[in-house]
């Protein structure tokens, strides 16, 4: 343990109550607090004429503030410069700090630590997440291990140095992803230059595999995410729970298209992990003709701006749920068909890019867990 003296927050924080009566016809700048240690954000101004309560409370830059309702999930922060002079309800207690004993940045990082939220959540009253509240008196009674100011400064420097490196790592990861995406699009557009366009039905006809539903049968279901984010596995369906639904089998290599979400990119290629799963009648499967086209190439095209414009044009309707892509229209979509060799080369490149993304996704949890681990060590005096 740190060996630092335990100090109640009431010894270094004083609640600020700058109450102002609400006046009709006046607008009040407003702020809110994100959960999970993400800090303060600007909200639309409060219209005094439409506001139900009779009072608001003015806050100042540099004050510590939290949400009584969302304290259990880390809604703590410092009021930034843009929040100076903003108004909040009594659900957002604000506090002035004793600058001779407490460094604002030290408190800022302390309250970005998940273990701190968990500790304070025990003081919340009420039942259920939407009713639990952390009262200011309970908050101020909390004990904090507080090192001298010099040590606080050192700890803050260490944390900020680590976060700078983490931000750089995230920036580089995004740069790699963006470069890989740009490379795929560049290569793709070069491959389709001069290529003939054919109706989808000629290169990847619709193939439906109806499933005979049995009462004691189980049917693992899948779905397609919008915006080209791939397939996902839904809970397994029981035959006894199915009545009017029609199910269709999906095979690895199928081009899977949601007929109600195709217009926003719910299009993907089924992989080995998806083989044998079922989709409702809303999911259309197309099978690329051997030696003519590859499903990966077709999927990529349909998710390009040119491709998605065709899909949207074939999905009439004004409301979200009414934009349905009929199978007859899907079959008529025109897709580029360069030589199969070029398509396979592109699919190989796609696989390499996918491998990069998968490798990054595999170590993402470790990257996400690093800062909480650093904060935990820091406030135990182990950094």
Alpha-beta classification: alpha+beta
Q: How would you characterize the largest beta sheet? A: 4 strands, antiparallel
Question: What is the CATH architecture term of the largest domain?
Answer: Alpha-Beta Complex
The CATH class designation of the largest domain is: Alpha Beta
Q: Look at the structure and give the mean pLDDT.
A: 92
Helices and strands, in order, run as: EEEEEEEEEEHHHEHEHEEEEEEEHHHEH
Overall geometric form: elongated
- Low-confidence spans: pLDDT under 50, at least 5 residues? none
What strand order characterises the main sheet? 2-10-7-8
Strand content: 15-25%
Helix fraction bin: 25-40%
Radius of gyration: 28 Å
Give the domain tally: 3
Q: Can you tell me the CATH superfamily of the largest domain?
A: DNA methylase specificity domains
Cα(first) to Cα(last) distance is 11 Å
CATH topology of the largest domain: Adenine-n6-DNA-methyltransferase TaqI, Chain A, domain 2
Total DSSP E strands = 20
The count of helical stretches stands at 9
Commentary on this structure:
It is a single chain. Strands 2-10-7-8 form a four-stranded antiparallel β-sheet, with helices on one face. A three-stranded antiparallel β-sheet has the order 3-6-9, with no helix packed on it. It is an alpha+beta fold and about 375 residues long. The chain contains nine helices and 20 strands. Helices cover about 35% and strands about 20% of the residues. It is elongated and about 75 Å long.
């Amino acid at each position: 343990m740190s060996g630092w003296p335990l100090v109640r927050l009431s010894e270094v924080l004083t609640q600020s109550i700058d109450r102002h009566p609400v006046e009709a016809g006046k607008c009040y700048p407003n702020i809110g607090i994100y959960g999970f240690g993400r800090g303060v954000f600007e909200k639309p101004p409060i219209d005094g004429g439409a506001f139900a309560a009779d009072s608001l409370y003015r806050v100042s830059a540099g004050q510590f503030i939290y949400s009584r309702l969302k304290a259990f999930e880390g809604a703590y922060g410092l009021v930034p410069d843009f929040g100076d002079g903003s108004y909040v309800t009594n659900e957002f207690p604000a506090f002035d700090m004793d600058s001779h004993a407490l460094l604002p940045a030290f408190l800022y990082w302390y309250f970005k630590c998940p273990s701190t939220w968990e500790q304070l959540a025990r003081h919340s009253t009420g039942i259920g997440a939407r009713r639990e509240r952390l009262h200011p008196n309970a908050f101020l009674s909390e004990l904090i291990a507080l090192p001298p100011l010099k040590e606080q400064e050192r700890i803050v420097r260490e944390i900020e140095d680590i976060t700078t490196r983490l931000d750089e790592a995230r920036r580089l990861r995004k740069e790699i992803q963006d470069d890989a995406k740009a490379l795929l699009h560049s290569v793709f557009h070069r491959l389709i230059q001069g290529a003939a366009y054919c109706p989808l039905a000629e290169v990847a006809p619709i193939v439906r595999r109806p499933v005979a539903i049995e009462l004691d049968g189980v049917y693992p279901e899948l779905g397609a995410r919008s915006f080209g984010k791939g397939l996902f596995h839904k809970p397994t369906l029981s035959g006894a729970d199915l009545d009017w639904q029609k199910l269709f089998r999906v095979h690895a290599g199928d081009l899977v298209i949601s007929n109600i979400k195709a217009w926003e990119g719910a299009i993907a290629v089924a992989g080995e992990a998806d083989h044998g799963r079922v989709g409702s009648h809303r999911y259309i499967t197309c099978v690329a003709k051997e030696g003519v086209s590859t499903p990966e190439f077709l999927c990529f095209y349909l998710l390009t701006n040119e491709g998605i414009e065709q899909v949207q044009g074939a999905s009439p309707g004004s409301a979200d749920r009414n934009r349905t892509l009929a199978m007859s229209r899907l079959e008529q979509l025109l897709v580029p068909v360069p030589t199969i060799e070029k398509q396979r080369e592109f699919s190989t490149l796609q696989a390499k890019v996918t491998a990069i993304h998968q490798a990054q996704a595999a170590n993402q949890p470790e990257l996400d867990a690093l800062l909480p681990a650093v904060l935990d060590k820091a406030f135990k005096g182990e950094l």
